[in-house]
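--- STAGE predict ---
source: upstream dedup step, 1 unique chain passed
mode: sequence only
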Amino acid sequence: MVAGSRGSRPPRSVVLLSGGMDSATCLAEAARRGEVIALTVLYGQRHAREVRAARALARRFRVRGHHVLRLPLGPLAPSALTDRSIAVPAARDHRSRIPPTYVPARNTIFLALALAVAESSGADSIYVGVNAIDYSGYPDCRPEFLEAFERVARLATRAGVEQHRRIRIVAPLLRLSKRDIVERGEHLRVPWALTWSCYRGGRRPCQRCDACRLRARGFREAGVVDPLVASA
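--- STAGE serialize ---
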């Protein structure tokens, strides 16, 4: 059956689910639309806290399936997120150079995996929580990258070449500030207490790294209490 038709089943999406506030909001968006298959990648992160968050979110939203794929990128693509010998920097100006927390080609790899899941499962869209406003300056979070990858999806799959199926790359948060994302998540009833953003892991957010800084600003500007900080 061609994905996106309204015959025997609702629309189906693949969601790249990291366990953070952005991917959780994307999951809530996709779940409103129809069926969801979640994909979480264990890429050699320095901690597993966000993976536990992804599992909890998948259970809360009752996804059709949740694939947790182990793909250790650390030896191939060293980063402060995969190599403990590289320090995670404290908060920084995200408009300056690309930070050491950038994992080489991570979103390209993740989207390729999600594309394989989408094509084989009949999904018509891939949701990814990238953001080009309040973000850490990663090159694979830009709209031109997403547009290019959607062209790849058309040219490099049987779904695109033979079946003329379009698998869309959906980035609903792309042009939203962190404040906007928190407000959108509140509207969608995202369970923030189940999410995790901190690069350092641990029992509590460090409140010093770039991810913590951006998250804190979003909650502060939205006038919403972050339950992870409130319970610390």
